[in-house]
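TICKET: design request
STATUS: open
ATTACHED STRUCTURE:
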Protein backbone atom coordinates (compact mmCIF):
# COMPACT_ATOMS: atom_id res chain seq x y z
CA UNK A 1 0.00 0.00 0.00
CA UNK A 2 1.05 3.61 -0.51
CA UNK A 3 2.06 5.90 2.31
CA UNK A 4 0.57 8.82 0.41
CA UNK A 5 -1.40 9.36 -2.77
CA UNK A 6 0.60 9.37 -5.97
CA UNK A 7 1.12 12.87 -7.29
CA UNK A 8 1.20 13.06 -11.09
CA UNK A 9 3.92 15.44 -12.23
CA UNK A 10 3.92 15.97 -15.98
CA UNK A 11 7.39 16.39 -17.45
CA UNK A 12 8.34 18.12 -20.66
CA UNK A 13 12.05 17.32 -20.79
CA UNK A 14 14.52 14.57 -19.96
CA UNK A 15 16.27 16.79 -17.41
CA UNK A 16 13.03 17.05 -15.42
CA UNK A 17 13.48 13.42 -14.39
CA UNK A 18 16.40 14.51 -12.26
CA UNK A 19 15.04 17.78 -10.86
CA UNK A 20 14.17 17.89 -7.15
CA UNK A 21 10.52 18.07 -6.13
CA UNK A 22 9.08 20.25 -3.42
CA UNK A 23 10.47 23.18 -1.50
CA UNK A 24 12.92 21.04 0.47
CA UNK A 25 14.62 19.91 -2.72
CA UNK A 26 13.97 16.22 -2.10
CA UNK A 27 12.49 13.68 -4.44
CA UNK A 28 8.87 12.70 -3.94
CA UNK A 29 9.51 9.10 -2.86
CA UNK A 30 6.52 6.88 -2.15
CA UNK A 31 6.13 3.34 -0.83
CA UNK A 32 4.11 1.50 -3.47
CA UNK A 33 2.83 -2.07 -3.37
CA UNK A 34 4.83 -4.44 -5.59
CA UNK A 35 1.56 -5.70 -7.07
CA UNK A 36 0.83 -2.22 -8.41
CA UNK A 37 4.15 -2.03 -10.29
CA UNK A 38 4.17 -3.49 -13.82
CA UNK A 39 7.09 -4.07 -16.24
CA UNK A 40 7.87 -1.51 -18.90
CA UNK A 41 6.21 -2.43 -22.19
CA UNK A 42 8.63 -4.43 -24.38
CA UNK A 43 11.32 -4.14 -21.71
CA UNK A 44 14.46 -5.42 -23.49
CA UNK A 45 16.50 -6.31 -20.39
CA UNK A 46 16.03 -9.71 -18.82
CA UNK A 47 15.64 -10.08 -15.07
CA UNK A 48 17.68 -13.16 -14.29
CA UNK A 49 17.80 -15.25 -11.11
CA UNK A 50 21.60 -15.35 -11.08
CA UNK A 51 24.35 -14.69 -8.55
CA UNK A 52 23.95 -10.92 -8.90
CA UNK A 53 20.25 -11.23 -8.08
CA UNK A 54 21.11 -13.25 -4.98
CA UNK A 55 23.48 -10.49 -3.85
CA UNK A 56 20.89 -7.79 -4.51
CA UNK A 57 18.23 -9.71 -2.60
CA UNK A 58 20.56 -10.20 0.36
CA UNK A 59 21.42 -6.49 0.35
CA UNK A 60 17.74 -5.49 0.31
CA UNK A 61 16.98 -7.87 3.18
CA UNK A 62 19.72 -6.25 5.24
CA UNK A 63 19.58 -2.60 4.17
CA UNK A 64 16.32 -2.12 2.28
CA UNK A 65 16.08 -0.52 -1.17
CA UNK A 66 18.72 2.22 -1.20
CA UNK A 67 17.83 3.69 -4.61
CA UNK A 68 14.12 4.27 -5.37
CA UNK A 69 12.66 2.92 -8.60
CA UNK A 70 11.14 5.24 -11.20
CA UNK A 71 7.63 4.65 -12.51
CA UNK A 72 4.79 6.42 -14.27
CA UNK A 73 1.01 6.07 -13.84
CA UNK A 74 -0.82 3.64 -16.14
CA UNK A 75 -4.14 4.54 -17.72
CA UNK A 76 -5.46 1.09 -16.75
CA UNK A 77 -4.35 1.50 -13.14
CA UNK A 78 -1.17 0.92 -11.22
CA UNK A 79 2.23 2.04 -12.39
CA UNK A 80 4.65 1.15 -15.18
CA UNK A 81 8.25 0.73 -14.05
CA UNK A 82 10.74 2.83 -15.98
CA UNK A 83 13.74 1.75 -13.93
CA UNK A 84 14.01 -0.70 -11.06
CA UNK A 85 12.88 -4.01 -12.56
CA UNK A 86 15.69 -5.96 -10.86
CA UNK A 87 15.04 -4.22 -7.52
CA UNK A 88 11.35 -5.06 -7.88
CA UNK A 89 12.10 -8.76 -8.37
CA UNK A 90 14.63 -8.74 -5.53
CA UNK A 91 12.00 -7.23 -3.26
CA UNK A 92 9.66 -10.08 -4.19
CA UNK A 93 12.38 -12.62 -3.38
CA UNK A 94 13.08 -10.83 -0.10
CA UNK A 95 9.42 -11.16 0.89
CA UNK A 96 8.66 -7.43 0.88
CA UNK A 97 5.23 -6.03 0.04
CA UNK A 98 6.27 -2.53 -1.04
CA UNK A 99 9.27 -0.64 -2.41
CA UNK A 100 10.23 3.05 -2.65
CA UNK A 101 9.29 4.62 -5.99
CA UNK A 102 9.43 8.05 -7.59
CA UNK A 103 6.30 8.56 -9.69
CA UNK A 104 6.61 10.82 -12.75
CA UNK A 105 4.03 11.36 -15.48
CA UNK A 106 6.28 11.16 -18.54
CA UNK A 107 5.44 10.55 -22.19
CA UNK A 108 6.45 7.36 -24.03
CA UNK A 109 9.58 8.75 -25.67
CA UNK A 110 11.02 10.19 -22.48
CA UNK A 111 10.19 6.99 -20.62
CA UNK A 112 12.00 4.85 -23.21
CA UNK A 113 15.12 7.03 -23.10
CA UNK A 114 15.24 6.95 -19.30
CA UNK A 115 14.57 3.20 -19.20
CA UNK A 116 17.42 2.46 -21.61
CA UNK A 117 19.88 4.85 -19.96
CA UNK A 118 19.23 3.40 -16.51
CA UNK A 119 20.08 -0.13 -17.67
CA UNK A 120 22.54 0.06 -20.58
CA UNK A 121 25.66 0.50 -18.42
CA UNK A 122 25.03 -2.69 -16.48
CA UNK A 123 27.52 -5.52 -16.77
CA UNK A 124 26.67 -8.82 -18.45
CA UNK A 125 24.17 -7.39 -20.92
CA UNK A 126 23.43 -9.80 -23.75
CA UNK A 127 23.87 -8.65 -27.37
CA UNK A 128 20.12 -9.07 -27.94
CA UNK A 129 19.32 -6.86 -24.94
CA UNK A 130 21.72 -4.14 -26.05
CA UNK A 131 20.43 -4.32 -29.64
CA UNK A 132 16.77 -3.98 -28.67
CA UNK A 133 17.53 -1.22 -26.16
CA UNK A 134 19.49 0.91 -28.65
CA UNK A 135 16.74 0.40 -31.23
CA UNK A 136 14.05 1.53 -28.78
CA UNK A 137 16.03 4.62 -27.77
CA UNK A 138 16.87 5.56 -31.35
CA UNK A 139 13.23 5.19 -32.42
CA UNK A 140 12.13 7.38 -29.51
CA UNK A 141 14.64 10.08 -30.42
CA UNK A 142 13.72 9.94 -34.10
CA UNK A 143 10.07 10.18 -33.19
CA UNK A 144 10.81 13.45 -31.48
CA UNK A 145 13.16 14.64 -34.23
CA UNK A 146 16.18 14.05 -31.98
CA UNK A 147 14.96 17.00 -29.94
CA UNK A 148 17.39 18.46 -27.44
CA UNK A 149 15.15 17.87 -24.41
CA UNK A 150 15.83 14.14 -24.67
CA UNK A 151 19.42 14.80 -23.66
CA UNK A 152 21.13 16.42 -20.73
CA UNK A 153 22.16 20.05 -21.13
CA UNK A 154 25.84 19.15 -21.27
CA UNK A 155 25.29 16.69 -24.12
CA UNK A 156 23.11 19.12 -26.05
CA UNK A 157 26.04 21.49 -26.44
CA UNK A 158 28.18 18.71 -27.88
CA UNK A 159 25.52 17.02 -29.96
CA UNK A 160 23.37 19.78 -31.44
CA UNK A 161 24.74 19.17 -34.94
CA UNK A 162 24.73 15.34 -34.73
CA UNK A 163 22.12 12.86 -35.84
CA UNK A 164 20.23 10.55 -33.50
CA UNK A 165 22.61 7.59 -33.85
CA UNK A 166 25.59 9.78 -32.98
CA UNK A 167 23.80 11.15 -29.92
CA UNK A 168 22.90 7.63 -28.75
CA UNK A 169 26.52 6.59 -29.29
CA UNK A 170 27.91 9.54 -27.37
CA UNK A 171 25.60 8.99 -24.42
CA UNK A 172 26.37 5.27 -24.25
CA UNK A 173 30.12 5.57 -24.79
CA UNK A 174 30.01 3.48 -27.98
CA UNK A 175 31.22 4.21 -31.50
CA UNK A 176 28.23 5.21 -33.62
CA UNK A 177 29.02 2.50 -36.16
CA UNK A 178 28.91 -0.04 -33.35
CA UNK A 179 25.49 1.28 -32.37
CA UNK A 180 24.36 0.73 -35.96
CA UNK A 181 25.73 -2.82 -35.87
CA UNK A 182 23.85 -3.61 -32.68
CA UNK A 183 20.62 -2.24 -34.12
CA UNK A 184 21.09 -4.45 -37.21
CA UNK A 185 20.85 -7.48 -34.90
CA UNK A 186 17.17 -6.69 -34.34
CA UNK A 187 16.62 -7.81 -37.95
CA UNK A 188 17.60 -11.38 -37.04
CA UNK A 189 14.91 -13.98 -36.45
CA UNK A 190 14.69 -14.92 -32.73
CA UNK A 191 16.47 -18.27 -33.02
CA UNK A 192 19.45 -16.73 -34.80
CA UNK A 193 19.62 -13.90 -32.28
CA UNK A 194 19.60 -16.49 -29.51
CA UNK A 195 22.68 -18.11 -31.06
CA UNK A 196 24.44 -14.73 -30.89
CA UNK A 197 23.63 -14.50 -27.17
CA UNK A 198 25.00 -18.03 -26.74
CA UNK A 199 28.19 -17.02 -28.61
CA UNK A 200 27.57 -19.71 -31.23
CA UNK A 201 27.52 -17.01 -33.91
CA UNK A 202 30.12 -14.23 -33.76
CA UNK A 203 28.83 -10.67 -33.46
CA UNK A 204 30.19 -9.34 -36.79
CA UNK A 205 29.04 -12.46 -38.64
CA UNK A 206 25.57 -11.98 -37.17
CA UNK A 207 25.47 -8.39 -38.44
CA UNK A 208 26.05 -9.66 -42.00
CA UNK A 209 23.39 -12.35 -41.58
CA UNK A 210 20.87 -9.71 -40.51
CA UNK A 211 20.66 -8.61 -44.17
CA UNK A 212 19.22 -11.98 -45.19
CA UNK A 213 15.48 -12.19 -45.72
CA UNK A 214 13.51 -13.78 -42.89
CA UNK A 215 12.75 -16.93 -44.89
CA UNK A 216 16.45 -17.20 -45.83
CA UNK A 217 17.39 -16.92 -42.17
CA UNK A 218 14.97 -19.72 -41.34
CA UNK A 219 16.53 -21.91 -44.07
CA UNK A 220 20.00 -21.06 -42.82
CA UNK A 221 19.07 -22.29 -39.36
CA UNK A 222 18.11 -25.66 -40.87
CA UNK A 223 21.39 -25.89 -42.78
CA UNK A 224 23.37 -24.96 -39.67
CA UNK A 225 21.56 -27.63 -37.69
CA UNK A 226 22.21 -30.25 -40.36
CA UNK A 227 25.90 -29.40 -40.78
CA UNK A 228 26.43 -28.67 -37.08
CA UNK A 229 28.31 -25.49 -38.01
CA UNK A 230 27.88 -21.75 -37.73
CA UNK A 231 28.96 -19.40 -40.53
CA UNK A 232 32.18 -17.44 -40.13
CA UNK A 233 32.43 -13.74 -40.96
CA UNK A 234 33.65 -14.43 -44.50
CA UNK A 235 30.91 -17.00 -45.02
CA UNK A 236 28.28 -14.61 -43.73
CA UNK A 237 29.46 -11.93 -46.16
CA UNK A 238 29.10 -14.38 -49.03
CA UNK A 239 25.63 -15.40 -47.86
CA UNK A 240 24.64 -11.73 -47.79
CA UNK A 241 26.04 -11.21 -51.30
CA UNK A 242 24.10 -14.17 -52.73
CA UNK A 243 20.96 -12.94 -50.99
CA UNK A 244 21.28 -9.49 -52.53
CA UNK A 245 21.76 -11.15 -55.92
CA UNK A 246 18.60 -13.24 -55.39
CA UNK A 247 20.66 -16.42 -55.70
CA UNK A 248 20.68 -17.71 -52.13
CA UNK A 249 19.29 -21.23 -51.95
CA UNK A 250 19.74 -23.95 -49.35
CA UNK A 251 22.24 -25.67 -51.65
CA UNK A 252 24.28 -22.47 -51.86
CA UNK A 253 24.10 -22.09 -48.08
CA UNK A 254 25.32 -25.62 -47.58
CA UNK A 255 28.15 -25.20 -50.06
CA UNK A 256 29.34 -21.96 -48.46
CA UNK A 257 29.22 -23.23 -44.89
CA UNK A 258 31.03 -26.48 -45.66
CA UNK A 259 33.71 -25.26 -48.08
CA UNK A 260 35.26 -22.22 -46.43
CA UNK A 261 35.99 -23.85 -43.11
CA UNK A 262 37.71 -26.68 -44.88
CA UNK A 263 35.23 -29.30 -43.82
CA UNK A 264 36.29 -32.50 -45.65
CA UNK A 265 33.86 -33.72 -48.24
CA UNK A 266 32.63 -37.24 -47.70
CA UNK A 267 33.16 -39.91 -50.38
CA UNK A 268 31.38 -43.11 -49.43
CA UNK A 269 32.56 -46.37 -51.00
CA UNK A 270 30.08 -49.09 -50.23
CA UNK A 271 31.70 -52.41 -49.37
CA UNK A 272 29.39 -54.46 -51.54
CA UNK A 273 30.52 -52.45 -54.58
CA UNK A 274 34.28 -52.75 -54.09
CA UNK A 275 34.64 -56.19 -52.47
CA UNK A 276 34.58 -57.88 -55.84
CA UNK A 277 37.95 -56.29 -56.63
CA UNK A 278 39.69 -57.84 -53.60
CA UNK A 279 40.31 -61.32 -52.22
CA UNK A 280 37.81 -62.41 -49.56
CA UNK A 281 40.55 -62.36 -46.93
CA UNK A 282 41.23 -58.57 -47.33
CA UNK A 283 40.27 -56.38 -44.41
CA UNK A 284 38.83 -52.85 -44.88
CA UNK A 285 42.20 -51.39 -43.91
CA UNK A 286 43.97 -53.44 -46.60
CA UNK A 287 41.40 -52.37 -49.17
CA UNK A 288 41.91 -48.72 -48.23
CA UNK A 289 45.68 -49.10 -48.59
CA UNK A 290 45.36 -50.55 -52.08
CA UNK A 291 42.88 -47.86 -53.16
CA UNK A 292 45.11 -45.03 -51.92
CA UNK A 293 48.11 -46.60 -53.64
CA UNK A 294 46.25 -46.78 -56.93
CA UNK A 295 45.10 -43.16 -56.51
CA UNK A 296 48.71 -42.07 -55.97
CA UNK A 297 49.70 -43.78 -59.22
CA UNK A 298 46.79 -42.13 -61.01
CA UNK A 299 47.76 -38.71 -59.66
CA UNK A 300 51.37 -39.14 -60.83
CA UNK A 301 50.20 -40.14 -64.31
CA UNK A 302 47.97 -37.08 -64.51
CA UNK A 303 50.82 -34.76 -63.48
CA UNK A 304 53.07 -36.39 -66.11
CA UNK A 305 50.49 -35.60 -68.81
CA UNK A 306 50.52 -31.91 -67.77
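STATUS: resolved
RESOLUTION: sequence designed for all positions
ATTACHED SEQUENCE:
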Amino acid sequence: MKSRSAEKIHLTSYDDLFQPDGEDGKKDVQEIALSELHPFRNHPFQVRDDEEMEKLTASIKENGVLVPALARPRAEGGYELISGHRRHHACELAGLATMPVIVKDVDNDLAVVRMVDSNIQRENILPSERAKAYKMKLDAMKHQGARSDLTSGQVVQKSQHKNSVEVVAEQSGENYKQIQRYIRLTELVPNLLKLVDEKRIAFNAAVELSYLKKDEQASLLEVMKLEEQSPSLSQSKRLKKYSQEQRLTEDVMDAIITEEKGKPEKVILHGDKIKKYFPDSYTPAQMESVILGLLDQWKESQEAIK
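CLOSING REMARK: Residues 268-294 form one domain. Confidence is low (pLDDT under 50) at residues 1-26, 146-161.
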